[in-house]
Each structure stands twice: as structure tokens, then as C-alpha cells.
Amino acid sequence: MSEKELGKKLDRCLADSAVKLGAGLGLGIVFSVVFFKRHTWPVAFGLGMGLGMAYTNCQNDLRAPYLIQRNIKMAS
Amino acid sequence: MLRVCLKGANSAARKCLCGNGVPLHPLQQCRSYTSGGSGSSAGKIVAASVLTMGGGVGGTILYANWDPKFRANVEKSIPYSDQVFGLALGPAAPPPVINKPRKVEPVQISSMSEVWKDSKQPKAKEVQRKAEQPDAEGPPAPAPQETLEEASAQVAQILSAIGEVPSVPAPGTHEAEAVPPPAALKGVPAAAAKCTECEHEPAVKERPEGEVAARLAEQDKAEQDLLTSLSSNLEDALGSTAKVTLQAIGAQEAALQAIAQHTRQLREAMEAEAPPDKKSTQWRVLEDALSERSRSVDEAGAAVLKAKAELDKLRGVIDGAKHLKIAAARPSILAAEENLHSMVVDLDSVVTRVQTAQSEAKIVSQYSELVNEAKAQFQKELNSITPEIQANWKGLTGKLTQDDLNSLIAHAHRRIDQLNRELAEQRVREQIHIDSALEQQKLEDKKALEVAISTALEHNREQMRLEQEKKVEETREVMEAEMRTQLRRQAAAHTDHLRDVLKVQEQELRSEAEEILNSSLMEKETEYRRLTQDQLDSFTLDMNAAYARLKGMEEAIDSHVIAEEEARKAHQLWLSVEALNYTLKTAALNDPTEPLEGAVQAIKESCAEDEFAQALATALPSESLSRGVYSEASLRARFYTIRQLARRVALIDETRNSLYQYFLSYLQAMLLFEKAQEAPPAKLSAEDLDTFKLLSYAAYSLEHGDLELAAKLVNQLKGESRRVAQDWLKEARLTLETKQVVSLLSAYANAVGLGTTMAP
């Protein structure tokens, strides 16, 4: 069901973003706690990195069909 | 064609006149003018054709008058022309009759050709008469007969000349034999030469030859009789003459003997000094001898006369035989003549001998007479002197006295003187006598010489004539023999040629007969074969007809069976298709149908030999078989979600596919409103290819049950919308395919069923 794919992708996106955000947050917190003396900027940084990663992942995931790969046929 | 021309001319004239607006009356004039004008040319044409026809007919008649063959040809080819010719020229002259029998055969032996021509010409004339004109020609009939006889006589002569010489009767048979074979030979080459030309010829020719041969045989026989009579005559004459001549010669010899004996005895009597008794016996014997001699001489003379008469008779007979001119008798004539001649010669010689003997005897007798006279005289003288002493005084020596002796001696002396005187006288006269005697003798010698010469000449002449005749006869015989050999050779050559010709003919005839036999055999065989073949054919035909009918019946039954089978199959197909249809209907909402595989398998089984159905059955997409298809309703339901989604990702395509674009497209979808359903136009323009419009078109067509159009429209989506609708599209395609195939199958099943039910 190709119409469900988008939903799936979006789900994955959300999940991934959540994960990434969480991970970013976590790492930010960790880093901020550990390395950067509880500054918030590593958290923000981590969150931002997490968000950015999630955004990029989501975008890549959504773009994936349109990427021309070398040995793979066009995604149907 | 003339009428057409006339009409054309009329119409043209009328048109031009009508065009000018002239009233009817001039039109009539014009018409007559035009008809006249064309009439004059027509008249010219008619006249020319009549002239040509007349010229042709006249020329034909003239030429037929000149050449009868042409006339015959024309009469044959053109019916009733013979009547025309009869009217014009008179009846045709009958064709000239070719006289084939007039020809004489070319194959003839040269030496016999004239003879045979002579003998055949009358026959040929007779044949001509028989063949050509049955009207009687009496006068020529005897003439040919006479000529025939003459000719046959000549033929017989020639043939007899060819025939054997010694035995006279034999030539008759030999000729009779020789004549039919040449006749037969003549007949055969005549037949062989002529049979190709006219078949009745051989039969006609052989008859005359046979008749001629018969006649010749008759004549030969007559001649033979004549000849035999002649020869018998000759022989008789010869025999009698010979006998008589022999008798004469014998008589002459006897006379000769008698004369010789008489003379001898006379001489003996004169010379011998025998005692008187012996002397008397001697004289008696002498007288007997003399009488004998005279008798025999007379006898001889008579015999000679008789012989001479006989010889004359023989000569007469020979001359008569010679006059008859029969060649066969010639040698016998010659022999007779020779005999005659020899007899004459013998007779003459004997006569001359007898004459010489007689002259001798005369001399001797004269001498004896003289001696007797002298003796008588002496005796007389002696008697006058010595009358005592008798005749025989030889033995008187003892009885005589001296006186007697002296007187005797004186007498003897006187006698001697007398004798001497007489001797002297005689000597004197002797000469004269001798002269006269010589003269006489000369005359007589001359006469005798002449006679002898004449007789010798006659004899020589006769001899020479005989020799000449003999030589002639010999040469003739030689020639005859040569001719016979030549004839024989020619006959041999002729027989050889005949044999060859016969052989060739035999071969030809045999080959012909064989050919005819073979051809008739083959004909009969072919006939037989044809008949058998006809029988076979008719039988085969019947059999084939029966078989065909059987076959027809079987086929009808089979076709019925087949038709029923077909019907059953169609029914089955239809049932299976119905089953397929039914399976298609089992689609629940959002669930595909049952897999169509079973039904399709059933279809495939039901129509195992139907290619169309098989093709259709295999044309079903495999997914429909394995998984089943979605119903239209489910697809329709699904479409709305697709639509929502497609609306949302309408902006996303290959170029724009970032997340921001996603947001934007979402925003667009929220803000853009289109008609829920819009009727799609017949043709899509460029602006109709907008996602939203397409979706609304598709919704409309879906709502109106046109899945196909909806699928087509959905197919026009681009980008992410397309990707989103991809599955739906696939499903729609599947469904559409399946539906199409199934509808085809059902249509086909219906058609087949319809067809089978319609079939008789």
C-alpha cells in the first residue's frame, strides 16, 4: 500500500525525531552536565543536533525514492 | 450499316436545318437530297460489289472450263456449284481410265523375252479385253490363237533346241518340265512385281501362262510324235538300207571272192600241168567256179541295185526329214546321212573292187583263153604229129621213142621257130597293140579317172558337207550348251533373287503379321483391362458411394456428438465463467476476492482445447489468480484516502521534496478547495493535469462507476501524489484487467453457448 508509506515514513520521522531529540537532549544534558558545567547550550546543542538529525533523516527518508542510485532501479 | 449512315446523315442534316429555322418542307427536300447523296455513294458501292461478284463467278466458271480438277474441287467444296457448272459448261468429262494390265512385266529373261512377249501379248490382249470392255471382240480372238500357235511352235522349237539331244522323247518331258517352271518363275516375279500395283494381276497373268504352257506342251507332244515317227522312219529306212547295203556288200564280197577264186583256179588250171582226169575235174571245178562267179556277180549286181534303190529311198526320207526342219532330228538326220554316205562309199569301193577283180578276171580269162587256144593248137599240132599222145604229156618221158622224140623235138623246134616268128610279129604288133591298148587304156583310164574323180569328189563333197554339218551341229550344240549354262546361270540368279525377295517378303509379311498380331493382342488386352477397370471402377464407385454415405452418417453423428460436446463444453465454460464472476463478487469491502485461481483452473479445464479461452485464462494477471482482486467498491472507498493523501503531497516531486515542501504542500491542501467531483472533459488539456483537478475528475468518474477513466486520470498524477496512488493504481489496473478478461470470457462463453445452441 503505497498510500500508507507516507504515514509510515512520517511515523518513522516522528519516532526518529523523538529519539533524536531525546538522544540529543540526553547527550546534551550529559555533556552539559559532564563536560560543560550544566550549561544549557550543550542541551540546546544536543537538542538542535538531535532535531537537525531528525529533520535530515526525515527529509532523507522522504526523499529516498527520488535519489538516483547507481545499481538500484527507481523506487516504485 | 448503310441505314446507320443514312440516319446519321439525316440527323446531321436535320440539325443543321433545324438550327437554321427552316420549315419542314425543305427538310423533306433536304432529306431526299441527303438520301440521294448517300444513295449515289451507296449505288456506287452496290455497283462495285455486283461487278466484283460477277467477275469472280465468271472467272471461276472460265477457269473451271479450262481445268477440270479445279472444277471438281469447286464442285466438292461449294454445294450446288455443280449445277451451275452444268448449266454453264455442260457435264464434266469422265476421268480417263488407266490401263494397268497393258503393261508387260519388266522381270523377264532376255533370251525368252521375245518368245514370252509373243506368247503373252495375245494373252495380255485377252486380259485387256476381259478387264476393260466386256463387249465381244470375236475377230481378234482367232488371230491371237493363230499367232499363239505359231509362237508356241517357235517356242517349242527353241525349247526343243534347248532340250537334251540324244534321247528324243526325253526333250518332250524335259521341255514340258522346263516350260512350267519358267512359267511359274515368270508368274512369281510377275506377281511380286505387280502385286503392289494391282492385286488382280497375278491371278490374271498366271492363267495365260498356264494355257500357253499347256498349248506348248500339246505342240511339243505333237512335235514329239512327229519326231518319233520321223526318227522311226529314219531308223527303219536306215536299218533297211543298211541291211540291204550290207547284203549288197556281202554279195559283192562274195562275188569278189568268187571271182578271185575263179581266177586263181583258172590260173592254177592254166599253169598247173595236171593229169587229164584232174584237169577235167579242174576244168569242172573251174566251170563251177565260173558259174558261181557269174551267179555271185549277178547277185551282187542285183544287190547293188537294190541297195542303190534303198539308198535313194533313204536319201529321199532324209530329205523329207530335212524339209520338216525339226532340229532334234538333225543329228539323227546327220547320222543317217553319214551312214548313207559311208554305205555309199563302201558300196562304191566294193563295186570298184569287184570291177577290178572282174577286169583282172577278164584278163586272166583272156589269158587263159589264149593259153587254152595255144594249148589246143599245140595239142592239135601235137596230135597231128603224134596222135598217140594224149593230153597229159608230162609223164610220157618213159613211153616215147626216139623218133617220136625227134619228131617231137622237130615239132618243138618248128613250134619254137613259129613262136619266135610269132613273137617277132607279136613284138612288132606289140608296140602298136600296146600303143592302141595304151590309148584305149588312157581313154578308159581317163574315163575311169573321171568317174573315180567324180565319185571321189562327190564323196568328198558329201564328206565335207557332212563334216560341215557335223561341225555346225557341234557348234550348235556347244552354243546350245553355253546358252543352257547361261540360262541356267540366269535362272540360278533369278532363283537367288527370288529367294532373297521371298525372304525379304517373308520377313516383311512376318513382321507385319506379328505387328498386326501384337496390335490386336494389345487391343484385346487393353479392351480387357478397360473392361475390368470399368468393372472395378464401378464397383469402387459403389463402394465409395456407400462408404461416403456411411462416412456421412458417421460424420453427421460425430458432428452431432461434437456439437453436443461443444455445447457441453460451452456450457461448462459458461458455468466456469459464471463461477469466476461469482468469485469476483465475493470481494468484501477492503478485502480482495478469493483467489481466482480455482475458477481459472476450472475454466482452463473446461476449455482445454479452446485457444481463445486459454489465452484469456492465461491473460489474467497472476496476482489476481493468487491473491484475488479488489472490488470496485473497495477501490472506490480506498480512493478517498488516496485522494486525501495525494492532495496533501501535491507539491512534492523530484525537485521539491524537502520537509519544508511537505509542509507547504500540506498547507496547500488545507487551503485549496476544489470540487469534490468534476466531470472530466473529453480531452485533457495541459491545465487539467493539475493534481486536484485530476483527483476531482477521478472521483467523479469513480462515482459514476468508470474505474477505468479514474485509473487513467490517476495515472496522470505526478510526483509524490503518483507514488502515493501507485498501489491503488496497481490494484485498479488488476481489477480492471481481471474484469476485462472475465467479461471477455463470459462474452465468449455466451457466444459459444449461443453458437452451440444455434447449431443444428
From TrEMBL, chain A:
Q: What is its main location?
A: mitochondrion
User: Known InterPro entries for this protein?
Assistant: Mic10
Q: Where in the cell is it found?
A: Mitochondrion inner membrane
Pfam family membership, one:
DUF543
Nucleotide-binding recorded as keyword: no
Q: How does it sit in the membrane?
A: Single-pass membrane protein
Q: Which residues cross the membrane?
A: 18-36
Please describe the quaternary structure of this protein.
Component of the mitochondrial contact site and cristae organizing system (MICOS) complex.
- Give the protein's function: Component of the MICOS complex, a large protein complex of the mitochondrial inner membrane that plays crucial roles in the maintenance of crista junctions, inner membrane architecture, and formation of contact sites to the outer membrane.
State the name under which the record lists this protein: MICOS complex subunit MIC10
Q: Which UniProt keywords apply?
A: Membrane, Mitochondrion, Mitochondrion inner membrane, Transmembrane, Transmembrane helix
Give the organism's phylogenetic lineage: Eukaryota, Metazoa, Chordata, Craniata, Vertebrata
From TrEMBL, chain B:
Q: Where is the composition biased (Basic and acidic residues)?
A: 115-133
Subunit organization: Component of the mitochondrial contact site and cristae organizing system (MICOS) complex.
Protein name per its UniProtKB record:
MICOS complex subunit MIC60
Sorted alphabetically, the Gene Ontology cellular component annotations on this record are: MICOS complex
Q: Which family does it belong to?
A: Belongs to the MICOS complex subunit Mic60 family.
Disordered: annotated segments: 109-148
Record's keyword terms, sorted: Coiled coil, Membrane, Mitochondrion, Mitochondrion inner membrane, Transmembrane, Transmembrane helix
Gene designation: IMMT
Top-rank lineage group of the source organism: Eukaryota
One GO biological process term: cristae formation
Q: Per its UniProt record, what InterPro entries does this chain match? A: MIC60 (IPR019133)
Extent of the signal sequence: none
Enumerate the subcellular locations listed in this protein's record, separating them with semicolons: Mitochondrion inner membrane
Biological role: Component of the MICOS complex, a large protein complex of the mitochondrial inner membrane that plays crucial roles in the maintenance of crista junctions, inner membrane architecture, and formation of contact sites to the outer membrane.
Taken from the record, one Pfam family name reads: Mitofilin
Q: Write down the membrane topology.
A: Single-pass membrane protein
Q: Which organism is it from?
A: Oncorhynchus kisutch (Coho salmon)
Taking the record's annotation, the residue ranges forming a coiled coil are 402-429
